[in-house]
Amino acid sequence: MTANADYTREYFAIMDSLDGDVAGRRAAYDYMQGSTAIVHHQVVASTFVPRLFDRETREAMKRTAETAHRILVKVIERYLADPAYRRVFDFDPRLEELILLPRGYDSVLPFARVDTFFDEDDLRVRFCEFNADGSSGMNENREITASVARSETFKEFARRHRVEGCELFEPWVEAFLGIYATYDRRVENPRIAICDYLENGVVDEFHVFAELFRARGAECVVADVRDLSFDGEALRDGEGGRIDAVWRRCVTNDVIDHWDASQQLIEAVRAEKVALIGSFAGHIAHDKQIFKALFDERTTAFLDADEVSFIEQTVPLTAFLDENHVNLPQIRENRCEWIIKPTDHYGAEDVYAGIAVTQAEWEELVDRFANGRAGHPFIVQRYIRPFQTETLPPDAGIDALADGEVRREPALYNNLNGLYLYDGAFAGVFSRLGPLPTISKDMQGMTAATIWVD
Fold first, then answer.
1. Which residue, 413, 420, 419, 428, is CA-closest to 45?
2. What is the pLDDT of residues 179-211, one digit of tens each?
3. Which of 108, 146, 249, 282 could form a disulfide with 73 if both were Cys (CB 3.0 to 4.6 A apart)?
4. Helix 152-160 × helix 138-149 angle, to 10°
């Protein structure tokens, strides 16, 4: 059993000894309101109580993340090398075209975040999903950590323990430049563009990274994919500036949705005139079909025994929501055992846990999404009950409350731990919590600072 719960109880005890540290909570809330932790024009919801993880937890998370990355890299490499293996996946032909575009540098999966349900009592882990280049949350963690670190509660806890936050910015800048250094057509002093469809992107986070690239001497801009142009020799941003390397933050289903408007970027990659970090092959890890593919005998054939055992222990049973792949009546009748997800979306869109809806609603959802009726494939996955920890709900509205009205009692929230990987090395954690079976911003979810202890 880890010490995490003990650390959290100690944190609450310190807070109680400070009469709830209401001043610290007010200051943290005010900090967040003026912060850059903004997603879709709204400051993210957060908690005053960090997730406090001990050394054993850190080591288990590192081992889990890096093992998953190694397996995902093997799958991507086999897909690229073996046309027969590609039939394990059911991709739009345009996606397959993107995945097979040349890469030109060593790293197969440069940036990833594997989201996990982590049991802090016995260190067992189950995966929720894998995310590649579109992964975000780094700036949320940074700003929330800054907001609580000024409080007397945190300062007292830090006097008692050795504490360390997750530094998720400089290590990625270092990793990105190292990956670019292996690019076949690299140039000195490359000009970098962080690219997305900006209405979908976490733009404030992009600009923080851009400043850090500039501090390293690399010119960096934030650009919308649709503003790029390619003249056969150089990819250029909307201002006409040459781009030598792209950090791809756009997910591939958005590329498909904006197919015609994205051709300038695609053509530059095809002509090997720009380094796309990461390549579109990262979609293989991002697409939720990967959970089914990992159990396919064509996959287990090239994995070693330890890797197969790892998959069996950590990957929940997953199948297409299709009568050719699952027993639909059984899915309808046992809603609390299952969760429905689209294979290729993000932000928890159209994700439904059977435990969170009525039987009638569940049957309607199965009917709506089964057998491709939604126009794109869905999967059904064994529902994993998240690990719960004590925390404080977001302090929204604290500025309008008297000190005595501010909640001090802990509440139990579900946990979802996103484990970041920079070029295959474990980098830190995106700690999300929620009171409902599905943990997302749209489901009253919030983010906590991640702190390593002792």
1. 413
2. 999 999 999 999 999 999 999 999 999 999 999
3. 108
4. 90
| pLDDT (tens digit per residue) in 133-160 | 888 999 999 999 999 999 999 999 999 9
DSSP conformational letter for 168: -
Q: Which amino acid is at 148?
A: V
Residues 340 and 379 sit within 8 Å (Cβ to Cβ)? yes
> In this structure, what DSSP letter does residue 274 have?
S
The helix/strand/coil state of 405 is helix
Distances (CA, A) of 202 to 39, 101, 207, 212, 396: 6, 26, 9, 16, 22
Residue 117 near residue 416 (C-beta atoms within 8 A): yes
Torsion of CA 29, 34, 35, 37, to 10 degrees: 80
Query: CA 198 to CA 17: how far, in whole Å?
Result: 45
The residues facing 125 across adjacent strands are 118
The strands making up 338-342's β-sheet, listed across from edge to edge, are 318-320, 378-382, 338-342, 352-353
Residue 346 has pLDDT above 70, yes or no: no
Q: Which residues contact 51 (CB under 8 A, 6 or more apart)?
A: 4, 389, 415, 429, 431, 433, 448, 449, 450, 451
Can you say whether the dihedral through the CA atoms of 52, 57, 62, 64 is positive or negative? Answer: negative
d(C-alpha 176, C-alpha 423), whole Å: 8
Q: What are the two backbone dihedrals, phi and then psi, of residue 408, each rounded to the nearest 5 degrees? A: -120, -15
| DSSP code at position 185 | T
Report d(CA 39, CA 31) in Å as an integer. 16
Q: Which residue has the higher pLDDT, 370 or 10?
A: 10
- Decide if pLDDT at 349 tops 90: no
Average pLDDT over residues 115-126: 96
Question: Is the backbone of residue 92 left (phi > 0), alpha (psi -120 to 50) or beta?
Answer: beta
DSSP 3-state assignment of 366? helix
For the beta carbon of residue 25, count every other beta carbon within 10 angstroms: 25
Q: Backbone dihedral region of 157: left (phi > 0), alpha (psi from -120 to 50 degrees) or beta?
A: alpha
- Non-local (6+) Cβ contacts of 82 within 8 A are none
Q: What is the crossing angle of helices 22-33 and 138-149, to 10°?
A: 140
Cα 275 to its chain centre, rounded Å, is 23
